[in-house]
Specification:
This protein folds into two domains: 196 residues, TIM Barrel (Alpha-Beta Barrel), CATH 3.20.20.10; 123 residues, Lyase, Ornithine Decarboxylase, Chain A, domain 1 (Beta Barrel). With 370 residues, the chain is of the alpha/beta class. The structure holds pyridoxal-5'-phosphate. Pyridoxal-5'-phosphate binds next to loops.
Length: 370
C-alpha cells in the first residue's frame, strides 16, 4: 500500500529540516558545535531518518533520552557521537561502551559503577557531567558539587569530555536564565581552577539558542526548533529566515453524509446540528494522537477552507462540518496540522505545547519522508 493511500499519515519534510538546521547554524559562531536532539523518536518525526539527515548535514552530535533510543540509532548505522541525556543504570555501562555512546553523568555512585565496568572492559566511557543550576531535575547540585565532580572525573576508565546544564525558563525570564548561566560559568571556572577542563561546555536548547547567543559556548542543543517550531512566542522569528514546520498530518475523508437539523453527532451527543449539514467523517482519532481534549474545539483544512469539528473526537474517527465547503467528498484529503495549519492552534487550545502534540502522533500513523 502506498502511504498516501493510508487513512491518515504524517508527511516529514526533510528539506524543511535542512532549512531549519541551516537557519539555526547560521546564527552560531564558527566552531560552535551542534547537537541535534532526536529523543522521543525525533519528536515524533522518526529517529532514524532524521538522524541520518542531520548526520549528512554535518551535525557534530546527536542527543537522545535513553539507552534504547541510542541503540536504535547505532543499529540503524548512525556513527555520529550520541549523548544520552537521561540516566542509564550502572549495570548497563557495558552497553554504553559496546555502542560507543556518551552518557550524561549526574551522581557519584553511578560514576563509580561506570568506572568499574570500563576498567573491567579495558575501555574508556565518555561522559558529560550534568550540573543542576536551577531546573530542579537532574545534575550535581549543592555546596559539595565541585568536590563530587572532581572525584567523578578522576575515576579510572571515565573520559569527562563535557560539562552541561539545562535552563528551565529560557523562553520566559531572562534574569533567571542569566542567573543559571552565571552559576554554570562559575562552576566551570571553579573546576578549571582545580585543573579540570572540559572540551565541550553546553547549555542552550532551542529557546536559549535563539534568544541568548552568549550562552552558546562550545555547543548548542536545539530540538523543537529543528522541527520548525518556536519554543514560545518570544522566540518567533529570532532565527532570521523563519523556521518551517517539518511534519504535516493529513487524513482522507472516509464518508460525507447529509444529516438533518436536530441530528446528534458523536459520543455523548454534545453536538446537535442546528441546520441540515454535510458531515465529513475523518479516519483520525485520539488513538492516532489527536487528543480528545480537542473535541468541539479544532478545525482541519481542506483546499476549499477550514472545517470545524462536530462533537467529540472518537478513538479512530472524528466528524467535521463541510456544509460551507462545496465539493468535499469521500477520498478528499484534509490537513490536520502542519505547514498550512499551525499545530500551535491545537496545542494552545489544549493548554499545552507543540512538543506534546508532535510526540503524540501514534506509531500506527505511517510517516512519509519527502
Ligand atoms: C529536550 C532537551 C533539549 C532540547 O530542547 P528543545 O526545547 O526542544 O530545544 C535540550 N537539552 C536537554 C537536556 C533536553 O532534555
Amino acid at each position: 500500500m502506498e502511504i498516501t493511500q493510508a487513512r491518515t499519515w504524517a508527511e516529514v519534510d526533510l528539506a524543511a529540516l535542512e532549512h531549519n538546521y541551516r537557519a539555526l547554524r547560521s546564527n552560531l559562531e564558527p566552531g560552535c558545535k551542534f547537537v541535534g536532539v532526536v529523543k522521543a523518536n525525533a519528536y515524533g518525526h522518526g529517529a532514524l531518518p532524521v538522524a541520518k539527515k542531520l548526520e549528512t548535514l554535518g551535525a557534530e552530535y546527536l542527543a537522545v533520552a535513553c539507552l534504547a533510543e541510542a541503540i536504535e540509532l547505532r543499529e540503524g548505522g548512525i556513527r555520529t557521537p550520541i549523548l544520552i541525556l537521561g540516566g542509564t543504570p550502572g549495570e548497563l555501562a557495558g552497553e554504553l561502551i559496546r555502542y560507543d555512546l556518551t552518557q550524561a553523568l549526574f551522581d557519584l555512585s553511578t560514576a563509580r559503577a561506570y568506572s568499574q565496568a570500563a576498567v573491567a572492559a579495558g575501555r574508556e566511557l565518555k561522559v558529560h557531567i550534568k550540573a543542576d543550576t536551577g531546573m530542579g531535575r537532574l545534575g550535581f547540585v549543592g555546596p559539595g558539587r565541585v568536590e563530587d565532580i572532581l572525584t567523578a572525573c578522576a575515576l579510572p576508565g571515565l573520559e569527562a569530555e563535557g560539562l552541561f546544564t539545562h535552563f528551565s525558563d529560557a523562553d520566559g525570564s531572562e534574569a533567571y536564565t542569566m542567573a543559571q548561566f552565571t552559576d554554570f560559568l562559575d562552576l566551570r571556572d571553579a573546576l578549571a581552577a582545580r585543573g579540570r577542563r572540559f572540551s565541550l561546555c553546553h547549555c542552550a536548547a532551542s529557546a536559549a539558542t535563539l534568544r541568548f547567543p552568549c550562552t552558546h559556548l562550545d555547543m548548542v542543543r536545539p530540538g523543537i526548533a529543528l522541527y520548525g517550531h518556536y519554543p514560545d512566542e518570544s522566540t518567533v522569528g529570532l532565527d532570521g529566515p523563519g523556521l518551517i514546520p517539518v511534519m504535516t498530518v493529513r487524513t482522507r475523508v472516509a464518508a460525507v453524509r447529509t444529516l438533518p437539523a436536530g441530528a446528534c453527532i458523536s459520543y455523548g451527543r454534545t453536538k446537535v446540528l442546528g441546520r441540515e449539514s454535510r458531515v465529513a467523517v475523518l479516519p483520525i482519532g485520539y488513538a492516532d494522537g489527536l487528543h480528545r481534549g480537542l473535541s468541539s474545539r479544532m478545525e482541519v483544512l481542506f483546499p476549499q477552507g477550514r472545517a470545524p469539528i462536530l462533537g467529540r473526537v472518537c478513538m479512530d474517527l472524528c466528524m467535521v462540518d463541510v456544509t460551507d465547503l462545496p465539493g468535499v467528498e469521500a477520498g478528499d484529503v484534509a490537513e490536520v496540522f502542519g505547514q498550512a495549519l499551525p499545530v500551535e492552534e491545537k496545542s494552545d487550545a489544549l493548554g499545552t505545547i507543540s512538543y506534546e502534540l508532535l510526540t503524540s502522533v501514534a506509531p500506527r500513523v505511517p510517516r512519509l519522508y519527502l
